[in-house]
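Changelog note: in this version the structure field was regenerated for every chain. One regenerated record is shown below for reference.
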Amino acid sequence: MFGLMLVVMFGLMSPTLASVFPNDAITKTFHITGASTQTITGGSSTILGVQAMQSAQASNTSVLCGANEVFLNMAKDTPFILMNYVCSDTLTIVKTGNDTSFTTITYVPYVISSSNSDMGSFNQSLANNATPLKTFAFMTAGDIAIVLMLFVLIMLSLLTIWFRKV
């Protein structure tokens, strides 16, 4: 029963990741073998997230904004990390060592804080027109939390009634 609750909860919440990024976000993946430097973009950009996987622990994979290190993967794998890092220089991936690396980066080619373009969910101002995060077609994250709390309370109540009869 608990496993089913987890599957339903995460199944309902998984679509929310799609609304985290602006509509014009760019996701690039790089499969790099051996030591290499890959240029992602030049000029101003905002990094929204980075992820890296490596075949062994014999190298490091870094994301650099000019000379500034934004992300460093020293372990075998690093899960996707959400960021909001403004880069006004060349964005590059630098990999050392002889193993293989697979890196994913999501960014927009402009500075989010100074843009007036349609940026999807980022375009909503919390002060002016905040809307609840939709996790399903008709339920918000708050609705799901309330339903789950009520479900747990009902189950605990039924359990205490059952133990009183036994």
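Spot check on this record: The chain is about 25% helix and 35% strand. Confidence is low (pLDDT under 50) at residues 1-18, 119-130.
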